[in-house]
Design goal:
By secondary structure, this protein is an alpha/beta fold. The protein is globular, with a radius of gyration of 18 Å. The protein contains ten helices and seven strands.
Length: about 270
């Protein structure tokens, strides 16, 4: 862990984050492992940057990139998104200059994933990070605006408001890839997904956090089934949207938690 070493300086961290690790065309498959390791390194640098300014921050805290402890999101959630992005890009399902949209910025681990796997893309972030859960979010967003100048846009506020306002102000922006990981709860999550669908291209790829089992996320069982229950019940939103024909199931990350409720990232596409 980084805490075993002397912390790097802010300029060193910023330099590491600004390093271009994106690979183009067929190189993506040939150097798949190198790209993944470069992104993991950036995640560690982001942890260091965040901890320098927030001593209580723990590596990967409240994020999908932690490789430590019983959650191990970095080897499950993050890698699943990475693999699905690479497959979709190589298959031509994501354009060369894509637009990615996300709710729930936190420290920025997932934003790095989208910005570096899709190095010619633009990333639009909608989030309401603040104390006590993510007091570091606004400062990290400013860092991303500098490091990924012209490619990263951060909108602070309630997504029920900001997504509507953005869609009206920027109707030309259409998302190719989406990650929903902001407001919790069934209705809040469904609301975000519906609002994002309105500003997305047909068949856009959707990733969602707080998912649980393949049986629930694919709609094989209904929301009353024990396989469809977790801490927040947010996963019920995905189940109901799949069973209503609004989403089409693609797949889920592997379960990595030890002795805890299921908590996965899954993927869908919007039905036509």
């Amino acid at each position: 862990m980084l805490s075993h070493y002397s912390p790097p300086s802010p300029s060193t961290i910023s330099g590491a984050l600004s390093t271009d690790v994106g690979l183009g065309g067929s190189e993506m498959t040939h150097d798949h492992h190198a790209l993944w390791e470069a992104i993991r390194h950036k995640h560690l640098m982001l942890d260091a940057y965040t901890r320098l300014r927030n001593p209580t921050f723990k590596d990967g805290k409240w994020g999908i990139a932690s490789n430590f402890g019983r959650f191990r999101y970095g080897s499950s959630k993050t890698f699943f998104i990475f693999e699905e992005l690479v497959k979709a890009r190589d298959a031509g399902r994501i354009p060369a200059e894509p637009v990615t949209c996300e709710t729930g910025f936190n420290a920025g681990h997932s934003a790095i994933l989208f910005l570096d796997v899709l190095p010619k893309g633009k990333h639009f972030e909608f989030s309401w990070g603040a104390a006590p859960y993510a007091p570091f979010e606004p400062q990290n967003a400013k860092l991303f605006e500098e490091v990924y100048a012209g490619r990263f846009t951060y909108t602070f506020g309630d997504t029920n408001v900001t997504l509507r306002e953005f869609a009206k102000a920027r109707p030309e922006v259409k998302c190719d890839v989406i990650f929903v990981d902001g407001a919790k709860g069934v209705e809040n999550r469904k609301n975000d997904i519906h609002l994002l669908r309105a500003m997305s291209k047909p068949g856009a790829l959707l990733f969602g956090d707080e998912a649980n089992t393949a049986e629930c996320m694919s709609g094989q069982v209904d929301s009353s089934d024990p396989l469809c229950r977790m801490k927040y019940e947010t996963e019920v939103a995905y189940n109901e949207l799949v069973r209503a024909g609004f989403l089409r199931y693609v797949g889920c990350s592997k379960e990595k938690k030890i002795g805890a409720p299921r908590d996965l990232v899954c993927a869908w596409t919007f039905a036509a």
